[in-house]
Each structure stands twice: as C-alpha cells, then as structure tokens.
Specification:
six-stranded antiparallel β-sheet; 2 domains; globular; alpha+beta; 222 residues; D-amino Acid Aminotransferase, Chain A, domain 1
Amino acid sequence: MELIHQAIREGRSTLSEYESKRLLATYGIPVTREMVVTDLESLETATRDIGYPLVIKGCSPETTHKTEKGLIRIDVRNDEEARVAYQEITAAMGEDHPAVLVQELIRGQRELVIGMTREPQFGPCVMFGLGGIFTEILEDVSFRVAPVEKTEALAMMREIKGHRILDDIRGMEPANLDRLADMVITVCRIGLDHESVKEIDMNPVILCKGQPVAADALVVLG
C-alpha cells in the first residue's frame, strides 16, 4: 500500500494515527470520522464537516502516548473550545508545522483492544481483550497465530476473563460479535499481506450501541 511504502521511503518506523486508520479503513475496519488540520482555517472546516462534540489530538508519526503528553482534548463542544484546544496542542507539540486530528466523539462505556504483533518464530499473531487505560494493568487478552478463522476469533472473545462485557449488561446492547470477529480476522490479513507491518494496535475499540469503532490506532513498521 502506498502510504506504507511512503513511510518506509521517509525512514519512518510508525504511521500516524490518521495514516494507521486509513490503512485499517481500506480493509473495511470501522474507524472514527476525522480530518487532519494544520491551521485555524482548516480547523473551522473540520469542525463544521464533522460536527460537535469532538475529540482533538496531536497527530504525528513521532507522537505516541498522547494522553500522558497532554495532546488530547475530549468532548470539545463549540468553536471557542476547538480554537483553544488547537492552540494548546500545537504549542505542546513544539513542531514547525504541527498537524492536529479533529475526530468525532464516539460514546460508549465499553472499550476493547485488538492488535497484531509479528513474532520471529510464528509470524503475525493477533490479540483481543479489554482495552482502554487498563489494558496493561489487567492484561486480560487472548492470542492466536494468523491466519484466524471466524470460529477461532469468536472463541478468543470468550477466553478473556471479562467476556461478559460483550453481553447485554446494565441496559447496554450486546456487542456485535460478528463485526468484532471480522476485525480480528482482518488484522490478521493485514499482517499477512504486508511483511513490513510489525505491529497493529487498535486501542480503544469502543462499543457504541453494540457496534465496535476503532477510536485510536497505531501501526508500527519494521
């Protein structure tokens, strides 16, 4: 894919969040609606086209752990808040021509993680589990070696300790397991199609009325 080849030509080891989601969307994975902006004029266009409420983030291949670095503003509700968020984030990034991602706000109380890592011995391996800020703390995930069939993808979801989060609990709609399984299978396929993709991390994948949407993503090249 051209954006992968372009990043490699530029000597980069990661795709930006926007580029990562473009790759995922090409394969049919549901991602947030978003636009990259580089000035106040394009910010105005993005806020008008996407609509409030919004999430505004710093967007750079070198920028990871955006929350810890203060590069995210959530639930931005009007033009004034958007301008302030843009100015604060670009100042914190400290780059000559910083890019900012303007993204629709996906609401959902349940967060998952879907990822892929390329192991020297086994090749692409896919991961599914509980996501969000507790991924590293809880470590509630399951793994498979690619390729993965649908029955295996569905089995992965029942292997995690917190699998009941996928059910219709506390008045929330049950997760669309077929769509989640398709996302797991597709991540495997990306790893098999592109040897230069070393890792894929979709975290969080938010369940909005039961439908999964990748709200953040990172693709590592190697």
